[in-house]
Amino acid sequence: MAISNYIPAVWSSAVFTSFQQSQVVIPSLNTLFTGDVSYGNQVNITGATTPTIGSYSGTSTAEALSDSTVALQINQKKYFAFKVDDVNAIQARGTFDQWSNSAGRALAEDSETYVIAQMISGGTSQGTTAITTGDNAKAALRKVRTALTAAKVPAADRYCVVNSAMADLLLAGLSDASQLGNDASGIRNGVIGRLYGMTVLESALFTETKPQAVAYHATMGCAYVSQLDSVEALRDTSSFSDIIRGLHVFGAKVVAPTAVQFITATA
Fold first, then answer.
1. How far apart, in Å, are the Cα atoms of 198 and each of 141, 147, 170, 185, 195?
2. Is residue 1 one of the residues assigned to a domain?
3. Domain span at residue 255?
4. Is position 34 within any domain?
5. How far is CA 170 from CA 138, 183, 194, 195, in A?
6. Cα-trace Rg, the chain
7. Lowest mean per-residue pLDDT among 53-57, 106-110, 213-217, 237-241
8. Is 214 helix (H, G, I), strand (E, B) or coil?
9. E runs forming strands in 103-241
């Protein structure tokens, strides 16, 4: 049977919507440069040094500011491919959420696993410390918060993503979960709440199983670019099924290492 009624935009939109809705960390990153990207390209992120503030007494002197460029490589190329009995029939019924949702979730998990790994490999370590109690966990978060402040990272738009082991200790260390405060940005995936001026997120996508936390600034810390290149349908030559497959290209880069601070529990 020919795949005569397949509408790529419908499937692409459904997968992309699920991809966005399944994200936890990516919405808090600098995604300004996301757009029409392709594998093998790079995005140049340019930043300027901070100007000197002088006392004004009738005259002023302009200084030349140097800039720094960070190259973000679009070096991740991933795909999904799954079989369905009849694309035409499924699309006609309008009931393909189970496939598009699964694909979107898988793409989000793959991307965020990579993003967290990049933040840890490119960020600044605050070493290891004993984190076995709720008080230990809160002390660890205060340490990375202090490191951000010492690096003159703006107090606004700070986040902290923690793995499940750290999240459990944080919650155990509070007599009432409401002590974490409210997330001013509203309901968002993975948000535990706010603590020490940071929106705290929980993610199960850390490779580290010991308690670990990464504190960062939303725009200064890490940049992410992404493009869902294509979602297409084709006949499976080895069965009577159709195949839906898609290609996702992306990249992530720590822009300012001091704006990403992490801490890990000792063994």
1. 9, 13, 14, 12, 5
2. no
3. 8-265
4. yes
5. 6, 16, 12, 10
6. 22
7. 237-241
8. strand
9. 124-129, 158-162, 191-195, 198-202, 212-217, 222-235
The torsion of the CA quartet 125, 126, 132, 133, rounded to 10 degrees, works out to -130
Q: Give the model confidence (pLDDT) of 123-165 as tens digits.
A: 999 999 999 999 999 999 999 999 999 999 999 999 999 999 9
Q: Could you read off the pLDDT of 223-246 as tens digits, one per residue?
A: 999 988 777 877 777 776 778 888
Count of domains for the chain: 1
Contact indicator for 118, 252 with CB cutoff of 8 Å: yes
Q: Which tokens in the block code for residue 123?
A: 């960020």
In this prediction, residue 188 has a pLDDT band, given cuts at 50, 70 and 90, of low
Residue 2 lies inside a defined structural domain of this protein: no
Dist CA 186 CA 54 (whole Å): 40
Q: Length of the chain in residues, anyone?
A: 267
Flag whether 3 is in a domain: no
Q: How far is the C-alpha of 198 from the C-alpha of 38, rounded, in Å? A: 34
